Every structure is written in structure tokens, then in C-alpha cells.
Amino acid sequence: MNDKEVKVARGEAVGVVAAQSIGEPGTQMVLRSFHSAGIASVITTTGLPRIIEIVDARKKPKFPMMEIRLEKGASKNYEKVKEIWKKIEEVKVSSVLQRFEENLKSGVLILYLSKEKLEHYGMTGRTVASRLSKLEGVSVDGDGETIKVKVKDKEIKAVRTRFVKVLGSTIGGVNGIAKVVVQQDDDQTFYLTTSGSNIEGVLQVDGVDKDGIYSNDIFEVMRVYGIESARNLIANELMKTIQEEGIKVSFRHLGLVADAMTHTGVIKSVGRHGIAGEKESVFARAAYEETVKHFTNASVFGEVDTLRGVAENILIGKQIGVGTGRVRLAIKKEELKKIKKKID
User: Fold this and answer.
1) Which candidate, 309, 287, 288, 242, places its Cα nearest to that of 21?
2) Of the candidates 233, 262, 291, which is a domain's last residue?
3) pTM above 0.85?
4) So what's the pLDDT on residue 30?
5) How far apart are CA 87 and CA 170, in angstroms?
6) What angle do CA 175, 177, 179 make, to 5 degrees?
7) CB count, 10 Å around CB of 204?
8) CATH number of the structural domain spanning residue 202
9) Rounded to whole angstroms, how far apart are CA atoms 304 and 244?
10) What is the per-residue pLDDT across 73-109, written as a single tens digit (0 to 9) for each?
11) DSSP 8-state class, residue 70
């Protein structure tokens, strides 16, 4: 390999350098990151809470969001953008109601639909009635601005549960996309920002650029696009979050964290339930958290520690195998005698 191609010197302590490079500026984020009002009219987690969310590998982000780019034919046409927006934003029965009346004894729920809200979402009473008729355990009467829903079960608790399901059922849009905001770039191109994430659902919508969908839900990205995409998302989200705080960290350190979290083909957290807790060395696991537990288990199951890592060697006071510690010098006895003679 050409020396110019080498980006990291052999034996460089990249893990420690990455930890210091992220950890030190991370302490600067604490004071100003817990009070963020959100961006782009869509609430999202920022600052230190978002970094913790990522490195802890939380299954669902607290505020999932998406950025959706549109096909060339629609991206500069506001009317087409509105049509796509209406296809994406989730519409529930409660979203189009003016009011409702419920009778638990007879099991009847009367829905009074709002004409303005129906027009806003491009729907009619017939559309709502059609979607409700597909629900189990109910019968639907009427297709105008008043719809009567009757629950077949007579038990009051079951009736109440069914009423709640009817009011919260989805009658339009993509499941999980609670809100869509239309935004515009400097080049006058429109795009959509959503509160909520559902990549698979959005991919089915006509007019959406299939290669222009961005989600901050790491596990969903892994499920739809694969582990490599999830790795890139972890690194990019960490970089974006840190930059938003006005802090500079080299992408190499964040990329290393993302690689460590995903190199096994699944996403693992950095803490004791993930990378740190699954190290081969007993001493390395014990040095992080739950010291007594790790030593007890190691003694019960007869584990052997070969002391090949960094943490375990530091723990017992042995030279670590990074930097100059990687260098092993040997000299022939004959050569040593010659050197001694020259010194004498």
C-alpha cells in the first residue's frame, strides 16, 4: 500500500481518540440541548438527547420524522404537491368530525362529519362510510354527513373499546404520518417534511422520488434498505446533531462508532446491553459496569481472559497493544555482543 493512501497510522488508538473527540464536546451540549423548540414546524429530538437515543439504539425515536423529495414533474408544481401531501398525511375519523354522540347501552355511535374538513382532505361521507364498513364487529348506516355505527357486541366495556377504535381508525393517507409540512428549497423546489415515519407506505405513493426519502428512524431504515444504509444514517445523524450545536467533530470518529454498532449485521447499542457488554474479555466487561456480576459469571463458567484488548491490559497494569506498545523488538545474541564490545 502506498504511504499516501494510509489514513491511520498502524497501531493508532482510534477508539480512544474517537471517544475523546465525541465525549469532550458532548459535555458542552448538555446546557443548551434540553430546551429545543424543534425545527421546520415538525417537532424532533435534538442535541444530547438525540445522541443518547442513537448510541443507545432505541427501537423507536421519540419524534420520528421524514424528509420526502418529489419527482421532477411534481416538485415545482404546488397543486401536484398538495395532491401528494393529501395522499401521505394520515387522516383518522376524529380528524373529519364536527362532533359525535355515543350510546353505550344501545351500542350506537353517531358521527357528524364536518363538510369543511372533508373538503380539506378531498373526501366524502361515502369514503368514510366505506372505510368504516371494513372494520370488524360493527355495522355502518348512512353515507352523508351523518353516519351511524352500531357495535354488534352488547357488553358495555367491549362497546366502549370499539367506539375508541372507530374514532381512531385510519380512513386515508399513510399509517403513522401524523402531520405533513410543505417546504421549499432555494431553487424553488418543493419537498415534504413529516411528523412520523413509514418508508414502506410512502414508497407506494405516486409522485414521490423513491431515491429521495430520508427517515431518522434507524431500525426502520435497516428493515427497508439494509444494514449499510442504517450505518450511514447513524453516522450522518450523529454528525448533523453535533453540527447543529455549533460543534466540530471529524466524521471519521462518528463513522467508527457507526461501524462498531453495525458491523455484525444488526444494530447494537454502545452500552452494557450491546458492544460493551458483549466483549470477549472478562476484565473489559467488568471495567464498564456491573463488575461483580461479570467476575462471578466468569468464575462459575470458567472463562479465560487472553488479555488481547486495551481495557483489560490497562486494568492489570500491562502495556497495551497500541502505539509504541505494538512494537516488539528482538536482537540476536551475537549482534548484542558486538554492540557491547563497541560500547566498551
Assistant:
1) 242
2) 262
3) no
4) 61
5) 12
6) 145
7) 10
8) 3.30.70
9) 45
10) 888 888 888 888 888 988 888 888 888 888 888 888 8
11) E
Question: The domain spanning residue 316 has which CATH number?
Answer: 1.10.150.390
Range of the domain at 204: 65-89+176-215
Q: What is the pLDDT of residues 242-270, one digit of tens each?
A: 888 888 888 999 999 999 999 999 999 98
- Radius of gyration for the alpha carbons in the chain, expressed in angstroms and rounded: 29
Least reliable range by pLDDT among 58-72, 138-152, 299-313: 138-152
- Extract the C-alpha cell encoding 148: 351511524
Instruction: Count CB neighbours of 322 within 10 A.
Output: 16
Q: 3-class DSSP state for residue 290?
A: coil
Same domain, 95 and 168: yes
Residue 293 lies in a domain: yes
Q: Where are the alpha helices (DSSP H) in the chain?
A: 14-33, 47-55, 72-75, 78-88, 115-120, 125-132, 156-168, 199-203, 218-225, 227-244, 251-262, 282-288, 291-301, 310-316, 333-343
- The answer to whether 65 and 213 are in contact (CB under 8 A) is no
Looking at the structure of the chain, the number of domains it has is: 4
Q: Read off the amino acid at residue 59.
A: K
In the beta sheet, which residues pair with residue 69? Answer: 191
**Averaged pLDDT for residues 58-62:** 89
In a domain, 189, yes or no: yes
pLDDT in tens, 16-39: 889 888 888 877 776 554 444 444
pLDDT for res 213: 92
